[in-house]
Amino acid sequence: MPFRVRARAHTTSLFIALLGYIALAVVIDLLTPQSIRLDVYAAVAPLAAAALCTFRQTVVLAVVDFLVMVVLSGVVPDDPQAVNRISAIVGNALLAGASVAVARLLRERDALLDRLRITGEAAQRALLRQLPLRSPEVTVDGFYVSAQQDALVGGDIYEVVETPYGTRVLIGDVQGKGLRALGAGAAVLTAFREAAYYRPRLVDAVSAMEQGLRRYARSSTRRGATASDAQGGPEDQERFVTALVLAVPGGETVAEGPVVPVTLVDCGHLIPYLIESDGRVSELEPAEPGLPLGLGELVDRPRTVQHLALPADARVFTCTDGVTEARAPDGTFYPLAERLGGWAALSTPELLDRLRADLDVHTRGRLQDDAAVLVVERTRR
């Protein structure tokens, strides 16, 4: 059942229960001596409705409560304490009015939050496109889970760019997590999208990403210490980004051949896995692990480019350390390699669904870091 349908059914049940509460207060008031007035407690119903029900339901309960007070006070002609009756009516009227006012404020707040959420989701989706992403060469599926509540993106990044040289895939992990790492991640993504298309050599595209990160760090430093970390501040000059960049050349020969030539540049990222059609899972360990983006200037040599020939029906699985370092309540790390070995025969959507559900079970729904997963496979024709 959709969330909005469930919410509507829930408020309707509460509305009926509060109407029943008013009716019960009336019955008890009529059955007890006139010196004991319990009808004033009916005013609790619209107050509760202001917090729990819709605006329209709150107005209905407020009107019903007020009419009940007027009728009950009017059908007691021998009551010597007329002032008390008037006070009770006025008091209930004030409470009913306050309930309607509170309900109106809550309604406006919820509408504002809805607009902010829609705007925020649009902005975040502009940064990270929704998976799966397809090109003539490869299909990339996966998922992204932010460790920060109500955020769609955070410190992990990914992208798939179709270029004149084939398809280039990026996955990265910014130092830090959540929205505070968003600025550095956006800088790397922007540089990758531009350089991947215009730089024929993959290693040159990676160099452009590192330059983009350095420019962001310098501009963050100039903004001064008054800027918050979420918007970029002095501490951003120390941020680095682990990344794995993968390229598959275009052309009919590649698209239909028994193997797929893949070029990898590792920038201190986790080692990806190769999932073969026969169920074997192995690590694609780089010839020489590279330094993360932002630290490349510590060595005076270009980054290592690795050329692989992978089986055409194999898949490349890569993720960020939010997956491998996910902890159970007892501190146990998530056994990713073991799980992949047991799920290698599953289709990619099934594998991803199983992995995401298993992560939730392992961490009891409390992921400590942003988690991104990509599965790269040749596009089926």
TrEMBL record:
The keyword Membrane applies. This is Serine/threonine-protein phosphatase. Keywords: Hydrolase, Membrane, Transmembrane, Transmembrane helix. SMART domains: PP2C_SIG. Residues 138-378 form the PPM-type phosphatase domain. Pfam families: SpoIIE. The keyword Membrane applies. Residues 217-236 are annotated as: Disordered. Gene3D superfamilies: PPM-type phosphatase domain. It comes from Streptomyces pactum.
